[in-house]
Amino acid sequence: MYYGPAPLPLMIFAIAGFFIYLYKHRTPARKCSETLSTPTPEEKSNVLAMEKVVAAHEGYSAEVFDISVFGRRRVETFRLLSPGSKVELRLKRGCSACVDILAFGEYITDFVPDLGSNLLRLLREKRQFDAYLGGRDLAFSYNDTCDFCSVIIFFKLDGVPPTHVNLK
To answer: Rounded to the nearest 5°, which phi and psi values hold at 71?
Structure first.
């Protein structure tokens, strides 16, 4: 018996049948409905605390830094702070471009600010600035060994215009 390649019309019919099958069994496209989630009471209180901090620093310049905290003890200590709580920033010993973050006098983590940041200049010149915990990534609230947060600093420098801080 001869088993040669299938004739061309049969192949075209099979491919067309496959596409017809897909067309008939398609699922209707779901419409994306914009559902705005209502903020939880915790999120509302965090925003209110940060609004008070921002209002108290009207006319100041501001910078925001994303930080990560690792280690169970450090995370537990840092989570005692709520958004709007003061944190301490210092130059790291032995590193001219690194900044240590301290809470309650304890070392929490360190980070390297961006090149365009004024933070290193403020620390080197021992200028006055205020640093606060800006917010916390609530997606990691279940994890006891890591925390992802933002720190916001307020300062006044000649030649640096005031910043409008948008909390939304």
So the answer is: 110, 130
